[in-house]
Amino acid sequence: MGQRLGSRWRMRMTKFAILLLGLISADGAAAQDADWTYKATIYGWFPGMSSSVDTRFGTVEADSSSSDALSDLDMAFMGSFSAQYGRWAFIGDLLYSDLSSSQDTPFALYGDGTVDVKTTAISGYVLYRVVENPQMLLDLGAGFRHFDVDVDVALSPGRRPAASQSFNGSWTDPLIAARLSVPINDNWFLSGFADWGGSGGDDETWQIYAGVGYAFDEKWSTQFGYRHMEISKELDGPDMSIGMGGPVLALTYNF
């Protein structure tokens, strides 16, 4: 079953690549007259985390809200860089976070369970602008996201002594993506981004972002919005599911 799903996914990605190649051919003349522009963005993301991890003790679930993000966040770094050439955009995004959350376990033999998740996600995209007018900019494309995830599950003592189990894994998922920008006036704008991907077998990932931005001048702008990311993967045998969602504050420099 997993092989069939993986084959279907590869066929869909192949069709999408053929469509992009067609767009390249159609837009070749316009691209020759284009100039490169760049954007560098640093952002703070303050997500709550919902996790479900299969362990040898049973399934451990833990949740934290966005209001708990600062206390649960041990370390984070987030940034992105993009280059625009005519209708084509090339985007790289780096996310590193160390989040933990605790919750009473359903096991009578232990107290609460703490799930600590260290996530490094490196995403890359190639997008093509399919709509460009004063009312809207819409880009579609494909890319990848590489994960390096460490999960530590700790159970506090109850009727039995404290126990723990750790999982880790690295993998890369192909993605399809869309980006939207809607100008409101000379300074304010709405923006959105979404992607989805996976192997079609034992892993899947998707994310969505929506926000409002303000341009101070031609070089500097800021954005405030909401971002949610889901990760599902079989790590060392057991299944892991992680959801992270919360507000985003970003600062962008254009050059």
TrEMBL record:
Record-given protein name: Outer membrane beta-barrel protein
Every Outer membrane protein beta-barrel domain range: 16-241
Signal peptide: 1-31
Origin species: Paracoccus litorisediminis
Keywords tagged on the record: Signal
Xref: InterPro entries: Beta-barrel_OMP (IPR027385), OMP/PagP_B-barrel (IPR011250)
Pfam families named in the record: OMP_b-brl (PF13505)
Entry keyword Signal: yes
Domain of life: Bacteria
